[in-house]
Structure prediction request, 193 residues.
Amino acid sequence: MVVALVMAAMMPGLRPLRHHSLDLRQLIRDIPDFPKPGILFRDISPLLRNPDGWDEVMRQLGDLCSELKPDLIVGIESRGFIVGTALATTQKIGFVPVRKPGKLPGDVIGIDYELEYGSDRLEIHADAFYGQPRVLIVDDLLATGGTARATVELIEHAGGDLVGCGFVIELADLGGRRQLPVQMPVKSLIIYS
Prediction:
């Protein structure tokens, strides 16, 4: 084990053979009846406050990047910006925000999509995917999948080559994964059934 640690120190990117990941689920706080009665909110704030936990999130999503080799990370407003900019920085690649309407300056491409109780719109800069870069979507949560599916469609419409999605949390009972293309790699670090 000592040899493995010494080798890891001498060779950045090499992890000791006995690397054990943290139980990220212990760093998620459950808040009942938020934002409305009957909803159990999964709060990532304790995870964000824990440097070792956040480092583990970046390590696991970094492994996904090593596998899929994106040129850009796309983060969905707003917590997807936190996850996405951190991941893009650690991977030394660019970041592109997907925002609610009217938040981006300049020319944008948008998509309207249906939610459980109404509709919404997402927008991206029109020139975000010049040259058809390989794109990985990241967000904090995959729930019903409507926003993620709209983001997939927006990226394809804007000229990006979508290679996969990464989420910190997935609420599997809500079926969001079924809203995404079947052949597309999807990785969720914590899955609640």
In short: The chain is about 30% helix and 30% strand. Helices lie at 2-10, 45-49, 51-68, 79-91, 146-158.
